[in-house]
Design goal:
The complex is a heterodimer. Chain A has helices at residues 3-28, 31-42, 51-69, 75-90, 97-100, 113-146, 150-195, 198-226, 230-233, and one strand spanning 235-236. Chain A is mostly helical. In chain A, helix 1 (3-28) runs parallel beside helix 4 (75-90), helix 1 (3-28) packs antiparallel against helix 6 and helix 4 (75-90) runs antiparallel to helix 6 (113-146). Chain A starts with a helix and ends with a strand. By secondary structure, chain B is of the alpha/beta class. Chain B folds into four domains: 4-43, no CATH class; 52-159, Immunoglobulin-like (Sandwich); 190-232, no CATH class; 237-432, von Willebrand factor, type A domain (Rossmann fold). In chain B, 30% of the residues lie in helices and 28% in strands. In chain B, a hairpin with a 4-residue loop joins strand 15 and strand 16. In chain B, helix 1 packs antiparallel against helix 2 (26-43) and helix 6 packs parallel to helix 8 (348-359). The chains are: A mainly alpha, B alpha/beta. Strand 1 of chain A pairs parallel with strand 1 of chain B.
């Protein structure tokens, strides 16, 4: 194993462990865990105090096997993490869907908005980074198979990882900014929004999104039109 | 055009957004912003779409074994991503230095670099160097890769290398070869160089009669006229019989008996045409492949061109027939016959039969045609890895010995060339040493 590959595997392992820990922690903070713990205590199940650790171990093992050993995508592992995060995540719902259907059932969590947001951002960015690491590893292998020099591979890989880290950092920073701004605005405009029927808000937001994408698409089309095809742009000398 | 990565991000964004909106969950809505922000941040950059490529000069005609440097000066002004350049090499071209694949990153600044490597042409032939291929990728694979080619395909002709055949001067004695370099032809266009005065024979042109000498001789009572004889243009003729049977392909695709036979044929043709000989060639076991005897550089080029595209066939017994087909020329020019083949095969009886035929071609009473058999045995070509290989080679050599002795007894000179030990010129020089 090359030192570079070992570093990548170690990074993947650290990310898998961190995501598993986040999932386990989110589950342990939820009302679902309390219900399971009470059930365990009632039936005198001895391993109940170690349940978060067991969940962490199971998720990490699954992630290591799936991502590092079998070199598959991070989709199924992230879904597993999300499943364990779900009880806490649903605890922050503003729409009481079980109540809408007449059920007396409520998700609770001891985590606040900031804590859950950090876990959510960790899970989603971890999923993206794990997928990209797998892709970059495959690209490196392709380059090796095609006979590229090790120096070129090293250079391109460091460039790719650098770009990925920068992009992720920008994305997380932008998201965090929007989140905290949104949280600040919530207190200002919530009273006004509550007066609006929910369907107007939903349809309005959908229309806004569609309009935004239409404008983006128009811009992209204009950019593509301004650029001649690739083969004409080559300057043959 | 967006890639599957980008589409995955869009799907993830819409999925989380929808669930977040339905459940009124701010965390999910925030989470949905991550793939969106990543997508938008990634799409702010585009992979390079154009590049200025200046190609170095490549000679269209090369010699076998030449090392050629292929150079491209590349400047990329716009874009941000990964650039891949690949120069596909024709078959039988091997990399000597550098790499024909270059992968470079392109940052914000203008990037200028050189893509250079050296290749060796390992086999004669006509090749096409494909155009340089380039591809550019988005650094996060958010858009599809751009592909393209630069320049037109370049045709390259790789000619067999001409051997550095040296000429030995001033060795007194009887040559082992029956065909010394200074031999001159009996027929051909007469020059103005006077050779001798001889008696008139029927058919001599009247203008050649030396009236003064005839008158002087008549004073002594001999009334037959005397004629001047002049040197004829050119020297003797050489006829090369080249074997093109598939049994010659012993060894690798690049280094085998057939390739060495071609090298020997090309070298011999060059040597004799350079010295003013009239050289003809017949390629047997390859159908009817006759090159009429002629002198000069043009003839060498004609032969060389023929050899470039020559391939072996599955025939193996056409040597005696070849002699029949060339009979007219052999009797007309009395050439030195050089047979280039491989003797360590089960078909060598054809060679012996052919050499016998050549020696008897002019009848029993007249001087026989000089014949030289150049053999490139397969056991000298195949690398010997262990003692079993060594013993196999020795056994093959012993097995061939009766045939080689028979050829020598027939009066033909035999040159067994081992290309791994000596070059063809050295092997030939062994034949012209004094007795």
């Amino acid at each position: 194993m090359r030192p570079h590959t070992a570093v990548l595997n170690a990074t993947q392992l650290a990310l898998i462990a961190a995501l598993s820990a986040a999932g386990s922690f989110a589950f342990a903070s939820s009302g679902a865990f309390i219900a399971v713990r009470d059930y365990g205590q009632a039936h005198q199940l001895g391993y109940m105090p170690y349940l978060p650790l067991i969940i962490w171990c199971v998720m990490t093992t699954f992630g290591v096997l799936n991502i590092i050993v079998f070199n598959r995508g991070a989709g199924s592992f992230s879904c597993l993490v999300m499943i364990f995060c779900l009880p806490s995540l649903l605890g922050l719902n503003t729409v009481d869907w079980p109540g809408v259907f007449g059920a007396d059932f409520k998700f609770t969590t001891s985590l606040g908005f900031a804590g859950m947001m950090i876990i959510g951002l960790l899970v989603i960015s971890g999923y993206v980074v794990l997928n990209y690491i797998r892709d970059f590893k495959q690209s490196e292998q392709n380059m090796v198979n095609r006979g590229a020099t090790p120096a070129d591979i090293e250079d391109v890989s460091s460039f790719s990882y650098g770009s990925l880290i920068t992009s992720i950092a920008i994305a997380i920073a932008a998201t965090a900014l929007v989140a905290f701004l949104g949280r600040g605005l919530e207190s200002i405009i919530l009273n006004y929004l509550r007066k609006l029927p929910w369907n107007i808000g939903f349809i309005g937001l959908s229309c806004f999104m569609l309009l935004a994408f239409y404008i983006y698409w128009l811009g992209a089309r204009r950019r593509a039109k301004n650029q001649p095809p690739d083969d004409i742009q080559n300057i043959f000398q | 055009m967006l890639s599957t990565h980008a589409i995955k991000f869009i799907a993830l964004f819409f999925g989380l957004l929808l669930i977040g909106l339905i459940s009124g969950n701010m965390v999910l809505l925030v989470m949905s912003l991550v793939p969106l922000a990543l997508l938008l941040a990634g799409l702010l950059t585009e992979p390079p779409r154009s590049m200025d490529i200046r190609c170095g000069e490549i000679k269209p005609t090369l010699w076998l074994g030449d090392v050629v440097e292929i150079t491209h000066e590349i400047t990329v002004n716009d874009g941000y991503g990964i650039i891949t350049l690949h120069q596909e090499l024709p078959q039988h071209f091997s990399l000597v230095e550098g790499n024909n694949l270059l992968i470079k990153r392109k940052g914000r600044q203008t990037s200028a670099f050189t893509f250079s490597f050296k290749v060796r042409c390992a086999k004669r032939g006509h090749y096409v160097l494909p155009p340089l291929k380039w591809e550019t990728h988005h650094v996060l694979n958010l858009t599809q890769a751009h592909y393209g080619t630069v320049n037109e395909p370049l045709e390259i002709l790789v000619q067999p290398r001409i051997l550095n055949l040296r000429r030995i001067r001033g060795i007194a004695g009887i040559a082992t070869s029956p065909f010394p370099v200074i031999d001159v032809a009996k027929i051909g266009v007469a020059t103005t160089d006077f050779r001798e005065i001889r008696e008139y024979v029927y058919g001599d042109p009247v203008k050649n009669i030396n009236w003064k000498a005839t008158a002087k001789q008549a004073a002594h009572g001999n009334f037959s006229p005397l004629v001047n004889e002049f040197e004829v243009e050119g020297k003797k003729s050489v006829w090369i019989f080249l074997d093109a049977a598939s049994y010659l392909e012993v060894g690798t695709d690049i280094e085998n008996s057939f390739e060495y036979c071609l090298e020997a044929a090309n070298g011999a043709a060059y040597y004799f045409t350079e010295r003013g000989y009239r050289v003809g060639m017949y390629i047997y076991n390859d159908g009817d492949h006759l090159i009429y005897p002629d002198a000069g550089k043009k003839q060498f080029l004609r032969i060389s061109r023929e050899l470039i595209h020559l391939n072996t066939t599955n025939r193996n017994n056409e040597f005696p027939k070849a002699i029949e087909k060339c009979r007219r020329y052999l009797l007309g020019y009395n050439p030195l016959c050089i047979v280039i083949t491989r003797l360590d095969t089960r078909y060598n009886s054809n060679i012996v039969q052919g050499v016998t035929k050549l020696r008897l071609l002019r009848g029993r009473r007249r001087r026989k045609l000089p014949v030289m058999v150049v053999s490139v045995p397969g056991y000298n070509i195949i690398p010997r890895v262990n003692e079993f290989d060594e013993n196999s080679a020795a056994l093959l050599q012993l097995q061939t010995k009766p045939q080689t002795q028979l050829i020598r007894r027939l009066g033909a000179s035999l040159l067994e060339w081992n290309p791994r030990q000596e070059n063809f010129s050295t092997a030939l020089l062994r034949q012209v040493k004094a007795k």
